[in-house]
Amino acid sequence: MSRHHEVIVIGGGQAGLAAGYHLARQGRDFTILEAAAQPAAAWRSRWDSLKLFTPARYDGLPGRAFPGDPDHYPTRDEVVEYLTDYAGRFDLPVELDSRVRAVRAAEAGYVIEVGDRTLTSDQVIVATGPFQTPRMPGQLAELLDPDVVQLHSSDYRTPGGLPDGRVLVVGGGNTGFQIAEELAADREVHLAIGSRQTPLPTSVFGRGLFDVFESTGLMGMSVDSRLGRRLKGRDALVGSSPRRARAQGIALHGRAQHVAGRQVEFSDGTSIAVDAVVWATGFGRDHSWVDAPVFDQSGHVVHQRGVTPAPGLYFLGLPWLYTRGSALLGWVKHDAEYLAEQVAKAQPGRRAAAPRACRPVAGPAVTPAP
Q1: Which pTM value belongs to this model?
Q2: For the structural domain made of 135-197+235-279, what CATH number should be given?
Q3: Domain 3-132+285-346 has what CATH class?
Q4: What is the pLDDT of residues 227-270, one digit of tens each?
Q5: Three-class SS state of 195
Q6: Residue from 170, 152, 150, 174 nearest 162 by CA
Q7: Which letter, b or e, does each residue of 358-370 get, where b requires 16 or more Cβ atoms within 10 Å of its Cβ?
């Protein structure tokens, strides 16, 4: 027999937890379905030395600030501990090992297939985020000599996971630069940049970059505004730059275009022989399991700030869902609150609940970075 909830949230990461916080305040009957066996799975899968490029003062979810010095940049492990602690402190109903196979409309509400069981709900929030399917340049990867060690950035953990020798990192975003900089400490590193991103410092005239973004309104600029439409799709490097990379001994190249054995040729006419390749080529999104008329011909979700044409079906945590910060840890809470309000409008009559008390824990929830 299937279980029924007023709302089902799919995805137990930062977006799903933020939505859960607001649904709990409404006194909703809801559950959060997480495919992984552990909380904060997307963060656990990133490399060991990862640090956020936003300071802790901006990294909190609703109801709980990120612990530690507000000016420090949290590590991967701090984020994992924070999200795990957050779900427990607010007693959010996260069901682990609950991969959703399908969501489809029913006569009333939605049917959600999870493993060997079926759930139903009046409304659904899809909060699976932007990091779903590692994107690999198939032909280039397949043409590399089998002796060349290659992996996607989602599988990279530490320099020790790669052989000694010349390493090529492919991808000129924040991930590519950060991994290249770490590897450059003890080996020859080359970085292939397909499209250049604007480098931004972590501080401007003594003020933190995101302090400036917040005070000028850039973080709250909606995708529907003239400036928002211009900025959408334009990523930026925060704290990294080609100049800094060169100063660390990293050789920069254009787009990787051709591969023959160990040899990789670039769009700038250079070529090198490699011993290992890290593909920092991003992620794709897979919503093929959502059976609802909410996608355009390119497969993108049709929505207005996460509200789709299908009644009671919402999306949360996607890049530029509404603002630059929509997919970021410290800003997803704004869209989460908005969608919770839409849920309440669709199912009025619930009395707002008092915030659930934080459960006491032994010691600090997160150890500040040194």
Answers
A1: 0.90
A2: 3.50.50.60
A3: alpha beta
A4: 888 878 777 888 899 999 999 999 999 999 999 999 999 999 99
A5: coil
A6: 150
A7: eeeeeeebbeeee
